[in-house]
Design brief:
Blueprint lengths: L9 E11 L2 E10 L8 E8 L5 E8 L3 E7 L18 E9 L12 E8 L4 E3 L4 E3 L2 E2 L2 E5 L3 E2 L3 E2 L3 H14 L3 E3 L7 H10 L2 E5 L10 H18 L5 E8 L8 H15 L5 E5 L15 E4 L14 H16 L3 E5 L18 H19 L4 E6 L30 H18 L13 E2 L4 E2 L5
Helix pairs in contact: 1-2, 3-4, 5-6, 6-7
Length: about 450
């Protein structure tokens, strides 16, 4: 896309928000390409609600264009299923102009206007919880990839619409941008639909730690934060996926990356998807929230379903015991060939994937009662293409949807769980079609529901 700007234009806008009672505080900073060289530059900020009404304004002038807009009776931004109107966004209109004087006449009557959506919410975390607008969050999510049949990797508006419809159908409230920045359009969709994002930089299997790599890593984090910091859907920064954190050099390296990330944005917690064991890892102590990837019943102890639940519980407890921080499981799952059914459940069958999920669910519910476990992320939302290898059948098949977005059996199982959790934790209403009718319930005079 090509676009033009005036000779004097808005170069950057930074927004942070707060809630004080029923009043929303939108703190803003506006930078022009003049870098503060003109003292009579002026910025006017208008906040417009979904009905098109201007609900608040503020004006600031001088070299440092900063201020706060106060929105009365504000509608906060809420995640999906936590409120009857999730993902509420205001439109913020920033106008840049000069006060009329002789010094600025050569530049003419210059105006630049920039419009962006703003969600008003608070975000805080403790050693046991992450809270939005003062309410604790429990993540029901996925790892994802920007990949599909026909298009391959890339932006596709129709696919994006389909994916967000499926996310909401299944009752998810979050996903991780594994393992790179996704399109800006996908971030805007997340804002609008109330889907929370763990935003991840492209650091995968990181090793060979060096100063050169550290500078590249910092540059990547800086670009990610600069682009996505104004999105209310972004609630956490992930600084790596499955880095080799057992190496001695990982300690100082990830300490530096985590500190740099917090310096750029102290308003969001820092995490990383850790794959090494709790006793070998050297990076988790530098994080705010512990995320771990583990494939019990697949890469370890394949086929041994009876070992999954206790191993998940024990590892999550070990992470929390060692670091006294909130813990979430950022990846778990099993490859599945769609249409393959086997009884007893056998690896690669749809039945086995459902069994793997069910054993993890038992562990997660046990961990939730211990008040430090804050989320579960299935790997993966949909099947995706990989390099050719004898360990893959047409790519990675861990999706609950096929690569062309058709559901496997586990999609229905996960949908029942995610909506049941939303009903329990967020007081949402269950979809009418969540359970199929099986037999009359004499007490309630309706079809029997299976307990999860």
């Amino acid at each position: 896309m090509l676009y033009t700007v005036p000779r004097v234009f808005i170069r950057d806008v930074v927004v942070n928000t707060d809630l004080v009672g029923d009043e929303g505080h939108i703190y803003y900073s506006v930078k022009s390409n003049l870098n503060g060289s003109y003292q009579d530059l002026q910025a006017t900020v208008k906040i417009i609600d979904k009905n098109g009404s201007v609900v608040a304004t503020d004006t600031t002038a001088g070299a440092d264009l900063k201020g706060v807009v106060l929105v009365k009776n504000v509608k906060p931004w809420w995640p999906y299923l936590m409120h009857e109107e999730p993902g509420y966004l205001y439109n913020m209109e920033v106008t840049l102009e000069f006060k009329s004087n002789e010094a600025t006449k050569p530049l003419g009557e210059i105006h630049d206007v920039y419009r962006m959506n703003v969600g008003v919410r608070t975000l805080e975390w403790t050693n046991t919880s992450l809270l939005i607008n003062g309410r604790p969050i429990y993540f029901r999510g996925f790892g994802r990839h920007e990949d599909s049949d026909i298009r391959g990797k890339g932006l596709d508006y129709a696919l994006l619409t389909k994916d967000f419809n499926l996310l909401k159908w299944v009752g998810a409230n979050a996903y991780r941008t594994s393992h790179y920045p996704y399109s800006e359009e996908s971030m805007q969709f997340a804002d609008e639909h109330g889907i929370m994002i763990i935003d991840e930089c492209p650091s995968v299997d990181t090793e060979n730690y060096s100063q050169i790599l550290l500078e590249k890593h910092k540059a990547s984090i800086e670009q990610l934060i600069h682009r996505d910091r104004n999105h209310p859907s972004v609630i956490m920064w992930s600084i790596a996926n499955e880095p080799r954190t057992a190496l001695f050099a990982a300690d100082a390296y990830f300490e530096a990356v985590a500190k740099y990330t917090r310096r750029l944005d102290p308003t969001r917690p820092v995490t990383a998807a850790i794959a090494v064991g709790v006793n070998d890892d050297r990076a988790a102590k530098h994080l705010d929230i512990i995320s771990f990837n583990r494939y019990n019943g697949w890469y370890s102890n394949a086929g041994k379903l009876n070992m999954i639940t206790n191993r998940v519980i024990e590892e999550a407890q070990a992470w929390n015991s060692k670091h006294n921080k909130p813990v979430l499981m950022s990846e778990y799952g099993a490859d599945t060939m769609e249409g393959l059914h086997m009884l007893p459940a056998y690896i690669w069958s749809e039945d086995y994937q459902s069994q793997v999920f069910s054993r993890h669910f038992r562990a997660f519910d046990n961990l939730r009662k211990q008040h430090f476990f804050i989320g579960e992320f299935v790997w993966n939302f949909a099947d995706f293409k990989t390099a050719q290898t004898y360990t893959r059948v047409g790519g990675n098949k861990k999706g609950i949807f096929t690569r062309n977005r058709q559901p496997k059996a586990a999609a229905y199982l996960l949908r029942q769980r995610y909506h049941a959790l939303a009903e329990e934790l967020d007081k949402s209403t269950l979809p009418d079609d969540l359970f199929l009718y099986t037999a009359e319930d004499k007490q309630s005079n309706r079809g029997t529901k299976f307990e999860l």
